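sorry for the late reply, my laptop died twice this morning and i had to redo everyting from scratch. anyway the thing you sent over, i finally got around to it. pasting the sequence first so we're on the same page, its 245 residues, then the predicted structure underneath. double check i copied it right bc i was rushing
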Amino acid sequence: LNPKNTQDRTALITGSGRGIGKETAIMLARQVENIVVCSRTKNEINEVVKDIEEINDQVNIIGTKCDVSISSQVNSLVRSAVDRFGSESIDILVNNAGVAFDKKLVDTSEDEWDQTIDTNLKGAFLITKAILSHMIKRESGTILNINSGAGKAGFSDLSSYCASKFGLAGLAESLAIEVDMYNIRVMTIFLGQVATKMWQYYDYNYYEKNKNKMLSPKKASAKIVEMILDVKKYKNGDSVEMYNP
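ok and here's the structure:
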C-alpha cells in the first residue's frame, strides 16, 4: 500500500459516524493498523469504535468528535493522530463529511449556504491541508474525496450542495497536479443516490419510495476501499463514477 513504509498504516475518515464513512472505516480496519474516525456526533463515533473493535481487536483506534469546518478542531484531531501514530504514519485520508439542504436558491438562507460550503468544501480543504505536509514528508499517501453526481451536473433544489461538490471536484483535480511529484494519489469517486440517513433527512418520502433502488453504503464503501488499496489500477488524478446499485 505504501512504498515508503508498510508497517504503520493510518487511515483517517471524516464523517464516519454513519453511512458511507462508517462502512469505509470498518472495511479499512481489516487492512490497516491504525484508524481515525470522527464526526460531529460523539455517540455515533463511540458506536463505530465498538463495531471496529469487535471486527479487529488488534487495530488501534482514535474516535473523536470533530467539526471539519472548524480549523482548530481539525488541527487538534490531526495532532492527536500524529502524536499517537507518528508524523509519517497518516497515509490514507477519506474526505467524506457532508451535508445537504433541500432548498431552492431563493429559499436558501445564508447560514444554510455557509454550512454546506464549510462542511463539504472548506472541511476537505482544512483536513487535507493539515495532513498533506506529513504525506509529502513521507513521499506517499492516498487522498480520496467522496463526491456525487451533483459534482458533475446541477440539480434543482440542490444549488448549495452542487456548488460545494463542483468545488470539491476542482480542488481534487488541482491538488493531484500539485502533489504528483511526491507519489501521492488524489482521487475522486462520484456516487449516485446512496441509502443513507442524509437522504432520509433530505427527502424522507422519496427515500422510503426509492431506497431499494439506491446504492447501499456497503457497496459504495467497497469501491472506495478498492480504489485506496489497488495502487496499480487506480492512479493519481483518477475518478470513478458509480451511480447504479
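The first strand starts at residue 10 and ends at 13.
thats about all i looked at so far, will dig more tmrw
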